[in-house]
Amino acid sequence: MNFEDYRGVWVFIEEKDGIIAEVALELLGAGRRLADKRKTQLSGVLIGDQVTGLAQTAFEYGADCVYVYDDPIYRFYRTETYMRAMLACVEKYKPEILLYGATSTGKDLASAVATDLPTGLTADTTQLDVEEDTGLLLASRPAFGGNIMATILCKKYRPQMATVRPKVMKALQRVPGRIGEIVEESIPITEEDIRTKVLEIVRATTQRARIDEADIIVSGGKGLGGPAGFQLIHQLAETLGAAVGASRDVVEAGWIGHHHQVGQTGVTVTPKIYFAVGISGAIQHIVGMQNSGLIIAINKDPAAPIFQSCHYGIVGDALEIVPMLIEGFKAA
Ligand code: FAD
């Protein structure tokens, strides 16, 4: 493998329903920083149906060049179609660094691509940098139960690939009218070549905001005592128009589904306001919410670690305090 052949920082530009995913804009911001440090170009790979127009948005968020695979066959995400396009692109253009969002699509695509390339994949990273003298990608992520940050280097293979958690990188300020180069690409692929067919799309129906998009999250932990106590979390969230979050222990106890779990093995969130109710504040939980704008903790134990990570702390019984908050907010 001749490393000299591999150039540039590349980002998979995830798109859904004609809109670029937030995480792709965040990756363009992170990628721009890495590309500037490496004194190289930032490129995007856009795969979808009628997506060429989205390249302009990518330029305005930092891309110099966008490689576009625009074909009805990519209308819905399927591992096989997207993987083939991405593999063709990697083999043709040889990116030095290739980043994907750690979304269900990004994780699926990155791991599929990694299995077909002679390289590895650092999953779920939360920090990215490049080493000054070697130019190697430094991809960091929590390890050993969140107790340490591990920095993973891919010394022997190219491209250096990583998935990056949503909400941990910052998108650049949009520069309207910023221009770049569009390269239209295609590969010979037909429906007959593909084993999977999309028969129907069933959208999740929920009145509640998703935790990765909400401005306010009310999160509950084991301190609520059981599913009945956890209902208070739903009620407070309802009152505030907030999303419901949870600690892993609550999810494992079956009080609420996994997609509400905040933390290292759940979702990373950055709402404007985060309520941590009856949550002890284990490091694995903290890493998923520590960048929230305002953190308010309620815990009956004044020595609970959560009080080290919050802006405001209330020491007391959540089963008494939460009803008072609901009443107070309703009256306000
Ligand atoms: P507990 O630790 O049992 O804490 C309950 C808290 O409630 C205590 O502080 C107690 O003082 C307080 N309390 C009790 N009664 C009341 C009351 N009436 N009113 C107010 N407060 C009360 N955890 C996550 O959350 N997210 C993750 O993604 C995650 N990933 C993990 C990954 C690994 C590899 C490992 C090893 C662990 C992970 N964990 C994760 C688990 C984590 O270590 C903790 O076990 C978990 O966060 C604890 O959940 P909890 O705070 O709800 O429960």
UniProtKB/TrEMBL annotation:
CDD domains: ETF_alpha. Residues 9-198 form the Electron transfer flavoprotein alpha/beta-subunit N-terminal domain. It comes from the Bacteria. SUPFAM superfamilies: Adenine nucleotide alpha hydrolases-like, DHS-like NAD/FAD-binding domain. It holds the Pfam family ETF. Gene3D superfamilies: HUPs, TPP-binding domain. Belongs to the ETF alpha-subunit/FixB family. PANTHER family: ELECTRON TRANSFER FLAVOPROTEIN ALPHA (PTHR43153), ELECTRON TRANSFER FLAVOPROTEIN SUBUNIT ALPHA, MITOCHONDRIAL (PTHR43153:SF1). This is Electron transfer flavoprotein subunit alpha. The lineage of its organism: Bacteria, Bacillati, Bacillota, Bacilli, Bacillales.
